[in-house]
Prior knowledge:
The chain has helices spanning 3-43, 57-70, 108-119, 166-179, 207-210, 297-311, 323-328, 348-358, 361-374, 381-394, 418-429, 435-441, 500-516; strands at 78-85, 91-95, 100-101, 126-131, 134-136, 141-143, 146-149, 184-185, 189-192, 227-234, 239-244, 251-254, 257-258, 266-270, 277-284, 288-293, 315-316, 320-322, 338-344, 416-417, 463-469, 472-480, 486-494. By secondary structure, the chain is of the alpha/beta class.
Amino acid sequence: MNQNNIKWPSIFLLILAGVWLLASVEGVYYIIKVKNKNDSISISHQIKPLLYDSTKVIDQLKYYVNELATNDSMQHGSFGFCLVTADSGKIILEQNSDISLVPASALKMVTTGLALKIAGTGFSFRTTLQYSGTINPSTRTLNGNIYIRGSGDPTLGSVEYGTNTYSTILKRWFTSIHALGIDSINGAIIADDEIFDYDLVPGGWAWEDVEMSYGAPPSGLSFRDNLYDIQVRITKNTIQAKVEPYIPGLLTKNSIIYNPKIYNSYVFAAGPPFISERLLRGEIKYAGTYKAPMPDPAYFCAYSLYSYLKNNGINVSDSANTIRKTKIKNTYSNPERKTISTTYSTSLSEIVYRTNHLSQNMYAETLLKLIAVMKKTAGTTIAGVKEVNNYWKDRNIDLRGFHMVDGSGLSRANSVTAKQLTHFLVAFHNDSAIFSSFYRSLPIYGTYVNGAKPRTISALNIHAKGGYMSRVRSLTGYAYNKNGKLLAFTIIINNSEFKGFTLMERIDRILTLISKLE
Length: 518
């Protein structure tokens, strides 16, 4: 046999084996490379340095905005940025500014600004104590009802804020009733929360948000922040939970479990509005006090006054009630009422300040319904959203991509573009009647409401409302440039894979460069 006939097939097989081996190694390398790439995305990326020398701050700003937008950790996410002059709205820099994104709590900027515009910075909510029927001076008996007529004041009876605190307002109401010569009431204590609708939970709120303290709903007669306390104790064999103050008719099932390994303890109460059953759930490693939304804030308000009167010597023949309950039972009547006293909230300017600084969802939802009431429409979330849209349409703002379903930004069904939020800021800046109050209400970026030490960047005096929820980061507000000119900006990031610190580092760099612009 010819040896060449054997040699060439052997060489061919050897080459083929080599190619197969190389392909196998390359395949393993590719898998490892992709795996490591994914791992690096989930951890963080260093900020890529500027690849060319530039003394122009605007070039540096363009680079680092683009670096954030095109980073591997944004591969499956969305980013929007817009920077303009606050007076004229002239665009300085934008990237993806027309993409509609979920804003989270940055949406509160829209609600609070329009509430100030439509109601006025000095507006105060009024809660009126009234009575129906007649007073018999000889027996010191009111033959009629006591009514608490709300106007939506979110601060009424608060345990944390304002002058009309829980204990103070009950004592004041008692004193006013007693001063009329009333020692006995042949009737009921009735809460009137009719200024707002009965649909307490705004559209688009997730069930898990409704159960949490930050998901307390607005009411036409809010009281005690619309929250009750769950006091949790850990004993040797059990976890005990007690509700304070007493909520009439509330039935609870304690399903809280002890977990010494959990990082943050949490407790919530599962159950919808107007239903008195609650399932207490959560995991804790320490005893403590947790908060949960009330089933019916107006009813609790009426019951609180009823209980306070009885405990202080004024007998009430009936119990607490609400207009809503009487309508359900077909026992509603509308007798003439006389005013006993009127309680005024702090100014709207102060309420807006608290709304934006604490990102108070219940306050924001109240303000959205207030906008509707002030425009002489129904006190509903839907009507409030309609008035917001009408306001901006009348000012020729392009609202394509703007979808608002609540006032707080808690719903993921909200969407807005970076350009729209920035143009809203321009409009508020150019309204001298409200801008001072509005600007003051926006927190200084880098400071904390809990008293923690401010970060260095707080020295830039950037006033901005942030938004934060799972897979959403946003920031919208005002910053001064190097020459003292006020600029308006918006940053919205959805579905990034950045770790919190690495994303914050990038935002800080962008804001620092904005402050250095000329």
